[in-house]
Amino acid sequence: MSRIGKLPVAIPKGVKVDVDLNNLVKVHGPKGELEKQFHKDLKISLTDGTILVERPGDGRLHRSLHGLTRTLIANMGILPPRLRCTSRRYLFRCGGKQQDHRSRNRQAAGGTDCSQHSFDSPAGTV
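^ that's the sequence the OP posted. Answer follows.
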């Protein structure tokens, strides 16, 4: 089973999600709304504030769609807010601190380790 696909997607407060029988997922949030149609073979269920994506078999197509569908649903604005970062080439600015991530070993280069990056996207987020 896909390690990413089997993880449930938690729905934060203020976000409303509707799932149709035809796998049409609609997300309504404070910044707008998005909707996307997903593959008909996958089962998308909404229970107790979480979304779970299940696949019918272990065929190549279903395996590839499983993790992809879960990630696309999570990126429709359901992800919890994290530290916002902006990037210019290899330099990241996280919370007002500029960090250089050119080196593989950030601690040895004198930079601090910023373990999670969430990049601002101009369109497509709720």
